[in-house]
From TrEMBL:
This is Alpha-tocopherol transfer protein. InterPro entries: CRAL-TRIO_dom (IPR001251), CRAL-TRIO_dom_sf (IPR036865), CRAL/TRIO_N_dom_sf (IPR036273). Residues 170-290 form the CRAL-TRIO domain. PROSITE patterns: CRAL_TRIO. It holds the Pfam family CRAL_TRIO. Signal peptide: none annotated.
Amino acid sequence: IDIILFSTIVPAPVTPIHRGHRDSQRIIRNAESPRVLAVYCLMVGNAHSRMLKSSMSSNKILSLNECRKPSMKMLAAFGLDTSPLSAETCALAERELRETPEQVQKSLAELRRLLEEKNTLTYKDTDEYLTIFLRPTHFYAESAYNLMKRLATFKEKNEKIVANPLPREEKKLFTENSVVNVLVDRDQKNRRVLILNMGSAWDPKSLNSEQLFKVLYLIQIASLVEEETQVRGAVIIIDFHGLSTKQVMAMSPSFAMTLLLYIQEAMPLRMKEVHIVRQPFLFNLGCPMF
């Protein structure tokens, strides 16, 4: 796997709005001019390694238009990885999440006890399903139960959007829009990378804000099938290139509140980093909502 740096010159610095760890990499670098190069980190298959090495050895930075050429597209279709955790990821889970065989069994038993005693939530009680909620809460059963309760409350309040949506019924939201994309390869820390094109690529008439949230919700559910992603987490890159008033008006305060409430309070996925790139001046009008 090779990493390409997709870059474009922007008038103002681009900074991450959230960091999962202190050692996480920045996605900006200073140019010799006063302007800043926003570096867009994407992954490509080994089939392009020769092209990339040639480009990098000549110190040439690929433009976004060059990177959009068919020759630079992914050669493989995206697929979920259902393989068991690697030894390296198991060690990471033990270090960051307190995930040891003994702690796992203890936390599962305690979480089942809480669900049975309180008897107010209906969830699957398989080890695999309960572990989805124990991992982001570092295997503290009480915290996992509270996360499950917040998720149930969120789904009840937003039933219109997330009332058990089925991917096959929402197929057009994925196939007829290029707003949300999941990279085939993971990043250098083996995290899933989601690209969210919130600028000119987003037409709110064909994909309104509620539908956009539903797409993100379904992708998040799918990612939780992957144990590797449960432990490693995910990174989001939000690209505001070509943002106009059309997109700003579609990002209503209610949409922003719903999205942030879910991410901060009810999402079982470990969100490691969120990066904003190529935001124009118009972005400042919508930024306060977030």
